[in-house]
Amino acid sequence: MKKVTAAMVPQDIASEAIPELISEGIADRTAKISKEGKFKLVPISQERIADAKARFELCETMAHSIERMTPQERISDMLAHFPEEIRAVLPMKWEFVGDVAIIKLPDICIGYGEEIGKAYADVLGVKTVCADISGISGEFRRPSIQTIYGTLTESVRLENGVLYDFDVTRVMFASGNTDERMRMRGTDCTGETVVDMFAVIGYFTLPIAKFSGARRVFACEKNPESYWFLLKNIKLNGVVGKVIPMLGDNRRIPGERFADRIIMGYVQTTSEFLPKAMSMIRPGGTIHYHDTFPTGEQEHRITRIFSEVCNDFEILGIREVKSFAPSVSHYVADVRISDRFA
Ligand SMILES: C[S@@+](CC[C@H](N)C(=O)[O-])C[C@H]1O[C@@H](n2cnc3c(N)ncnc32)[C@H](O)[C@@H]1O
């Protein structure tokens, strides 16, 4: 904390007055704005005290210095002139895709989008800020993302040694699946043939191809836009030849009983694709089956789903990937198909 001279800006004119004090260089940007009763206390630069005094009553106060503030505090400080109901719901976490930051912005903030975006861009040091409006939808899991600041929307995310190049407004990205991507990276697939039935841009394919010891990975994706980035990422990560990209419906993948491991990274209608997975898996192979279930029901539901297509299997483990809805989670089950499976 340091002692500062502050302008007492009445709350009802703060949204116009504070940006003016900042843009005219009267506000001291190294100290934090605070609130007292019906006033915002805006620290003033020593050499501009006369200018501030001509407009507002001044007071002496203690203020936190900006350098000691977290990014969250700095964003909040930059938007100190916003109405309280907007400041109260400003997102305090974000995801980075290279030079792009993605925030979840409540509807009431959309009207303030550009100014909010600029504050996040300045504090987080990114070129573009995008607002995730309503998650992903449809067969292709298209994102509903709005650019609120900047123009560049394609960038490269580096995650656990894998480079993912994509356009955040055109391709889905599930930040909640990071641990699962990491788990796939660490899975021992030495010498295996792997099939990723829902590859998108290579979210599971790439860590497996780069780090797990797999011999080859067939990566199937139906959405041409995602597939285009999949091709780009195969080159970017140096796994050309090891990853065999396939554009189209995974139910048309040719061949039977050739896969040691199959990833079914889809939820809600995953079971419709299980007969196809069963036709591709070798006896003794493993299926990573993703789906959503009410919490507590996952084990018996997965047992029932597999019992309909296979008479001999073992559930090696089930893990919660992320929460999906109240009392419903996204799970992944590692299911080993028996050697005796005929
Ligand atoms: C939920 S996303 C996969 C998410 C990914 N596993 C992850 O963890 O980030 C499903 C993807 O499968 C693709 N897809 C849907 N149906 C398909 C099909 N029949 N064949 C191949 N790809 C399909 C969609 O276009 C979408 O990109």
CATH architecture designation of the largest domain:
3-Layer(aba) Sandwich
Gross morphology: elongated
Rg = 26 Å
Strand line-up of the largest beta sheet = 13-12-11-14-15-17-16
Strand content: 35-45%
* Tally of separate domains: 3
Q: Given the helix and strand composition, which structural class is it? A: alpha/beta
Spatial separation of the terminal alpha carbons:
73 Å
User: Which small-molecule ligands are present, each listed once?
Assistant: S-adenosylmethionine
Number of helices: 10
Work out the helicity level: 10-25%
Uncertain segments: none
Total count of strands: 17
Please characterize this protein's 3D structure.
The chain has 342 residues and is of the alpha/beta class. The chain folds into three domains: 2-68, Alpha-Beta Plaits; 70-152, Met-10+ protein-like domains (GMP Synthetase, Chain A, domain 3); 174-337, Vaccinia Virus protein VP39 (Rossmann fold). Helix content is 25%, strand content 35%. The protein contains ten helices and 17 strands. It has a seven-stranded mixed sheet with strand order 13-12-11-14-15-17-16, with helices on both faces. A four-stranded antiparallel sheet has the order 2-3-1-4. β6, α5 (113-124) and β7 (128-137) form a beta-alpha-beta unit. The radius of gyration is 26 Å and the shape is elongated. The chain starts with a strand and ends in a 5-residue tail after the last strand. The protein binds S-adenosylmethionine. S-adenosylmethionine binds at residues 139-141, 172, 174, 177, 198, 200, 203-204, 220-223, 226, 249-250, 265-266.
